[in-house]
Each structure stands twice: as structure tokens, then as C-alpha cells.
């Protein structure tokens, strides 16, 4: 399992529980199925990131992603150069 996805789900679950909502109620409010909410909260959802964002917004959270380019092998030498 991806720890990043699990962490997102855990935060969303905490927010839902603080509102006193069960998964069925939260799913209905977010326009998702209860199964989707369960999968999101358990870090196993493999659907659209837009659905995760939709759920986060319902709970008053924002979801932001950052796209970074990985360094190439040639660039790695410069990163670890200890001159």
C-alpha cells in the first residue's frame, strides 16, 4: 500500500468522524458511493483523484498535488558533489 494515500485517507476519516457522520451519510453528501468513501479512507482507492478532492472539499479540506520532475542520472552527480 502507498503510505501517502493511506495518510490522506486517515485525515479524511478523522474529519468525517469529527462531524459525527457515518460513511453512508458522507458519501451521499459528496456524491460518492459508500464503497468509494471506504476505499478512500482505507488508502486503497484507485479511482479518480477528482473524487478524492471532492470528498476532501466536502470535509472542509483542500487537496493539493505537486508535480516534480525527478533528477536524471547525470543531474544526480551534481546533487551529491561534495566540492
UniProtKB/TrEMBL annotation:
Cross-referenced Pfam families: HTH_3
Domain named HTH cro/C1-type: residues: 12-67
Gene3D superfamilies: lambda repressor-like DNA-binding domains (1.10.260.40)
Any GO MF annotation of the entry: DNA binding
Protein name: HTH cro/C1-type domain-containing protein
Organism: hydrothermal vent metagenome
Source species taxonomy: unclassified sequences, metagenomes, ecological metagenomes
Amino acid at each position: 500500500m502507498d503510505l501517502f494515500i493511506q495518510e490522506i485517507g486517515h485525515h479524511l476519516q478523522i474529519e468525517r468522524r469529527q462531524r459525527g457522520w457515518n460513511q453512508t451519510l458522507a458519501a451521499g453528501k459528496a456524491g460518492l458511493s459508500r464503497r468509494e468513501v471506504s476505499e478512500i479512507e482505507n488508502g486503497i482507492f484507485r479511482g479518480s483523484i477528482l473524487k478524492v478532492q471532492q470528498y476532501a472539499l466536502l470535509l472542509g479540506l483542500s487537496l493539493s498535488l505537486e508535480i516534480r520532475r525527478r533528477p536524471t542520472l547525470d543531474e544526480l552527480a551534481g546533487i551529491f558533489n561534495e566540492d
